[in-house]
Hints:
Elements: E1 12-21, E2 24-34, E3 39-43, H1 50-58, E4 65-70, H2 75-80, E5 84-87, H3 101-106, H4 121-133, H5 149-162, E6 167-171, H6 179-194, E7 198-202, H7 208-212, E8 215-220, E9 222-227, H8 229-232, H9 235-242
Parallel strand pairs: 3-7, 3-8, 5-6, 6-7
Antiparallel strand pairs: 1-2, 1-4, 8-9
Helix pairs in contact: 4-5, 5-6
Bound molecules: adenosine-5'-triphosphate (ATP).
Amino acid sequence: MSAAAPPGAPAIEVVDATVHYGDVLALDGVSLSVEPGRICGLLGTNGSGKSTLFKAILGLVRTDRGRVRLLGLEGAAARRRGLVGYVPQAEQVDWDFPVSVRDVVMMGRYGHMGPRRRPRAADREAVERALERTDLAGLAGRRIGALSGGQRKRAFVARALAQGPDVLLLDEPFAGVDQGSEATITALLRRLRGEGRTLLLSTHDLARVPELCDEAVLLQRRVVARGAPEEVLRPETVLEAFGVPVRGEGERWSS
Ligand SMILES: Nc1ncnc2c1ncn2[C@@H]1O[C@H](COP(=O)(O)OP(=O)(O)OP(=O)(O)O)[C@@H](O)[C@H]1O
């Protein structure tokens, strides 16, 4: 791996991050850190600031206050060096555009190519490997718009993976995904952790958190709770953050 973090440094470190969109306070003094080789679940209702936190970590939105480090670097620098992969919640894609799944995954290699974006053998190999790992090798030549929701999600996970990142940020990787894709993604995330990569993922699916995540952060513009999943998911904490009692296993939060 191309780990750039100074020894002992967290893979992801956010200290007192505050973000406004105009008058809207989206993040209010958020701090968290994730050690290398861990999966951290980011929980919160709609509008609680999860996507904004991802963007702040990546340097895609400006923080008014606070500090963000990815592997000891500023988010934008870590992105430029291909150290962090990002799977956004929704892709701004024209699904009618005639681009294949393989082409989409190759986009993850752009940072490794020169300005003319000519793929080399290493780029092709990384793409094929990412397609295999996401169980998409058989669909690689298909138009991206012809895939199901779950398959599309896997294609964007593959694109992030093709970069060979040490840190992966996944915004709702299970949303709109069928059971088969859900199982493929879950198994893959566990293997990535086993390889020492660090994952921060947001999800509404509470049942998934204890089984997949080493730790969790409950966000409501500010951090309401952080720690082991079973600590964060205590009934009183959930009630405070969501205004509803903990629901049955497998049920999803929404607001
Ligand atoms: N570009 C923007 N301009 C203005 N306000 C924004 C913008 N993006 C997000 N917001 C606001 O910031 C707050 C946090 O939004 P954010 O998308 O980060 O929440 P979220 O937890 O990811 O929500 P969801 O679960 O619905 O995806 C919300 O009040 C939202 O309306």
